[in-house]
Design brief:
Length: 107
């Protein structure tokens, strides 16, 4: 009996931008300032769409910060914080301690 191998489900990127096209005015700021080739113009209306979500580095958020209408945004802020804490806790102790000092500096 020949069993088909199941492909693992594609994982969603941990953090990637979301574009609300109804809020977008088509200024192109998000596309212009994204240096990671995550966002491209839609062929039909020229508004931004997510092209390569895996290219978005954790913590970047440049597109969301610069979007004048709030059309570019990210997942729930709480989810993002939890994700970052999980990533930081998996680092070697020397890196964790260095990060802790920097966190205290900005509190």
């Amino acid at each position: 009996m020949d069993e088909k191998k199941k492909k693992p489900a594609a994982k969603k990127p941990p953090v990637s931008p979301i574009i609300f096209t109804e809020r977008c005015v088509g200024c192109g700021t998000c596309m212009q300032f994204c240096k990671h080739d995550v966002i491209e113009a839609d062929a039909e209306d020229g508004k931004p769409r997510i092209k390569s979500p895996w290219n978005c580095p954790v913590g970047c958020r440049t597109c969301a910060r610069l979007c004048p209408t709030g059309a570019a945004t990210f997942q729930d802020e709480e989810f993002f914080i939890t994700y970052l804490k999980k990533r930081l806790s998996s680092r070697p102790p020397a890196v964790q301690n260095d990060t802790s000092r920097r966190e205290k500096q900005y509190q």
